[in-house]
Amino acid sequence: QVQLVESGGGLVQAGGSLRLSCAASGRTFSSYAMGWFRQAPGKEREFVAVISRSGGNTRYGDSVKGRFTISRDNARNTVFLQMNSLKPEDTAVYYCAADTWGRTRSLSNEYDYWGQGTQVTVSS
To answer: CB-based contacts of 116: which residues, under 8 Å, 6+ apart?
Structure first.
């Protein structure tokens, strides 16, 4: 069983930055690919970013490319999402997720464990 706990959400003005963290339980964190997704009210869950086990490979959703950066610290069992140049349309609940198979996929149904989410609100 893997437990994921997100933190770092909040209210920020457009153009600002936030850094989300996701702390994972367990001793095998370094064997998981880790992803970030988001869901706005009335919308489907959207892929944001994924990072490979070692951190050497990353992928991003088109709407966040060039603005968001995913990273991980395997010694601390933590994955991060640095969000810059935030826009009102980035407002959503952000979730981290673990793929215990170590794949770097963008489909939410391929992830095995999910956090409870953290709210990000960007004001215009």
So the answer is: 4, 5, 6, 95
CA dist 35 and 59 (Å) reads 9
| Distance in angstroms between the alpha carbons of the first and the last residue of the chain | 40
Q: Cα–Cα distance between 34 and 56 in angstroms, integer? A: 12
**Tens digit of pLDDT for each residue in 46-103?**
999 999 999 999 999 999 999 999 999 999 999 999 999 999 999 999 999 999 999 9
Q: Report how many helices (DSSP H) and strands (DSSP E) the chain contains, helices first.
A: 0, 11
Tokens representing residue 36 in the block: 């970030």
- Between CA 56 and CA 77 the distance in angstroms is 16
Q: Which of left, alpha, beta for 117 (phi over 0: left; psi -120 to 50: alpha)?
A: left
Whole-angstrom Cα distance, residue 88 to residue 34?
Answer: 25
| β-bridge mates for residue 58, sequence order | 51
